[in-house]
Every structure is written in C-alpha cells, then in structure tokens.
Amino acid sequence: MYKFLILVSLSVLLLIYVGCDNIQKVVTSEQEPTVKIGFVVAGERVTYPNGAEMAVTEINQRGGLLGMPVELIGHINKEAMPEVSVQIAERLIVEDEIIALIGPNRSSHAVEVGPVAQRYGIPMVTTTATNPNVTNAGDFVFMASFTDSFQGAVMAQFAIEDLDITTAAVITRKGDLYTEGIAEFFALNFSKLGGEIVANEFYEGNPSDFTAQLTSIAAAKPDALFTAGFVQDIAFITQQARAMSLQNEAGEPTIFLGADSWDSTLLFDNEDAEVEGSFFSGHFSPDTNEPTARAFVDAYESIYESTPTGGVAVSYDAVKLLFEAVERQAVSTLMKSVSNSPPRKTTSAQRPSPVTTKTATQPKAQ
Predict the structure, then answer these.
(1) Which of 66, 113, 169, 190 could potentially form a cystine with 199 if both were Cys, beta carbons 3.0 to 4.6 Å apart?
(2) pTM summary value
(3) CA distances from residue 128 to 89, 182, 214, 239, 361 in whole angstroms, order as listed
C-alpha cells in the first residue's frame, strides 16, 4: 500500500486577509448579472475542475456570491505547455471578463500566468502549484496549497525520524520549476537533519528508459530514493528500479519517496507502477474523519462515483477561499461605510433607525 502524508499550511489563509483589498471591485454596487470565475488546469489532471465545480454549485445553491449566480469557465490545457496556459488566462480575462482566476496547477505555468493576472488586476489563486516563486508576480497572486519548501522539509524529517533513513538518492526531471525545486528542498533538508545524499541523478524530456540513472543509484545502495517527476516518469522509474532489485547496504529494498505529484489516479491505477510500500506528501486524505472534509468526500463520491485526490480537494478549497475573501470584503466595506457615515440629527419625536452592525454606534438623539 502506498502511503501519503497530509500537509497543511496556514499561509493559504492570507488570501482572506491580504487579498480582500485586491478584490474590492467584485463587491461594488455595479455588477454584471453573473460572476464569472476562470479555471485553468494543465496536463492530465482532468478531475481537478470537479472540485471547483462543486464549490460553485454549493454557493449557487445558497443564492450565489453576494446574491449573484457564479459561472465557472474552465479550460484544460492538455498540451501542458506554459505558453498555452498564458493564452488561456488572457482570453479568460479579456474576452470572458472573469473577475478571478483559479489555477494553474503546475508551478511552471503559474509563474508565467501570474504576471498576466497581476497586469490586469485579476486575483489569481493557484491550486496545486507549490513552488515558492509562484507568488513573485505581485499582490494579486495567491496559493491555496503548501509550498515545496514546506513539503520538502516535512518529507526529509519524516524519512529520518519516522523511517530511520540515513542515506537517500534523488532522481530529478530537469527543466521544470516544480521538479527541480522539490528535489532541492528535500535534499537540502535531508542533509541538514544529518542524512546523506549518496546519488543525485537527472533526466530530461519524457524518457521511458532510466537504466543509466538507476544503475548509478543502485551502486550507491541508498535507503531511500526520492523521485521528483511527473506521473509517467514515476511509473517507469519505480517499475525499473524494482526490476533491478534496488537495495540498501543491508540488502533491504530501497524505499521510494515522493511529493504531491504522486497523488494521481493515473499512477495508482497503473499496473506497471511499483508503488507498493512507497510514501509521498499530499494535500488531502480521502480517509479523513474530520466532519467537513468527510462531507466533501461523500458528496464528491456520490456525484462523480470516484474518490477525490488532493488536487481535486485543493481546487475546491481555492474556489472556497476566493468566495470567503469576497464575502469578507463585502462585510468590511459595509462596516466601513456605516462607521464613516456622519451622525444623523434627530428631534425628540424622531428615533434613529437601529444599526445592527456591531462596530457602528447608534447616534444619540439631540
């Protein structure tokens, strides 16, 4: 059985507190009849929009966002090219006139799309993009997930403290912001905690043969192999590593470790992938007993007849965070409007209208 660690980060809540001012235009009095939200996902993560759709359906069933129906306009960039995600985002902003963008899911795409959202003043909340550089574009770009610096540190600590691993090898897909970043954060933290990186191998493009890299790794006999790649890479690497009986110094099978890119039904359902006994970090566990999360899982399974992955859950959360920020800003705007209003003069025969907002002070009769 593969196992995964569930990581949470309080930084996602910054959208609510910092981002409210950035989306104030959403809560002004002049509005279109429908609030349009854009959604962008790259690659084969075709179930991610399901989470966003659930969040939109929920708020529409409650009467909409500030009383207005919400429309989700989603695009799946199956080509998985960053420039295509940029084109999609700009089209959503200019032609569809969205008020906010959810996604992209890949860090290499998010760092390219972020400047577009920033330039147009459109709030953007990424889903599973985890590289810390994602938010460098400016104050309109937010992350709903944890960062690679966080999950890399947690995986290193878990390897050493929970699995008693002392040596590790790393194999990394070159040329991608996410894979290079998570590999670096894991290796850095593993070494800081007293572990030794005994092999560091790389590959480019989409190879199907990893014999050269795995042969070098096998010679180092690591306790663990941390794989920083995408789903198909992971399937090939784990299959070929087990075929050559990758072992540590004690003759025990090397343990496979990974990050959130492992969390995919495409990997779990791949019969060729050898992920039994592996560990990876993830955004969400469908086995949770937390009441709100359990309700989400049950609802998702009843609608889509499948179990939600972490990416689906984060897509749901990203939309909910956006809605929460808009609604809080609406309340804040109303409160400021009330508290800044000049006192009304009344005669003894006139009583002022009650104000229910807690921060407002009822003017005294004069």
Answers:
(1) 169
(2) 0.83
(3) 17, 13, 28, 26, 44
